TrEMBL record:
Activator of Hsp90 ATPase homologue 1/2-like C-terminal domain ranges (all copies): 11-150
Organism: Corallococcus llansteffanensis
UniProt protein name: Activator of HSP90 ATPase
Top-rank taxon, per record: Bacteria
Lineage: Bacteria, Pseudomonadati, Myxococcota, Myxococcia, Myxococcales
Alphabetical list of Pfam families matching this protein: AHSA1
Family: Belongs to the AHA1 family.
Length: 152
């Protein structure tokens, strides 16, 4: 099982960043790498609440984990600490054993340089998900998060 850890600075207060971590419309905007679109099927933003999200590749040649061009994952919020931390437990909906298994995503928010440092740790990556690809996707998503919350 692999792991990635990304730190990204956001020029916005922790409370605004935290709200963007728990808002379905915000998630559909920022929590999707470049070259994909997001569809939030379900999103219950409370501790123990469940979510289900699909990411579909724009390029017809890209291969999805769930269907030909789509990665669908579901999970629940394991821990929420207001304005400080969101812990999610997720898993891909797939028949491929190399992509199966629960992953834990911990996003921690820390005051820094007049804004917020976002620290995202993604543990339990299945063997079929290269850490470098996961890291690149997180970097793209966190850049989108910064743009989203910095715009107000």
């Amino acid at each position: 099982m692999g792991s990635t850890r990304i730190r990204h600075h956001v020029n916005a207060p922790r409370a605004r960043v935290y709200r963007a971590l728990l808002d379905a419309r915000a998630i559909a905007t920022w929590k999707v790498p470049e070259g994909m679109t997001s569809h939030v099927h379900a999103f219950d933003a409370r501790e123990g609440g469940a979510f289900r999200i699909s990411l579909t590749y724009d390029a017809p040649t890209a291969t999805g984990k769930t269907t030909a061009h789509t990665d669908t994952y579901h999970g629940h919020f394991a821990k929420l600490v207001a304005d400080e931390q969101v812990v999610e437990v997720t898993e891909f909906e797939t028949e491929d054993p190399a992509l199966q298994g629960e992953m834990t995503i911990t996003v921690t928010l820390v005051d820094a340089d007049g804004g917020t440092d976002v620290i995202a740790v993604h543990d339990g990556l299945p063997s079929g998900v290269p850490s470098a690809d996961n890291e690149e996707g997180w970097r793209m998503s966190l850049a989108k998060l910064a743009a989203f919350v910095e715009a107000g």
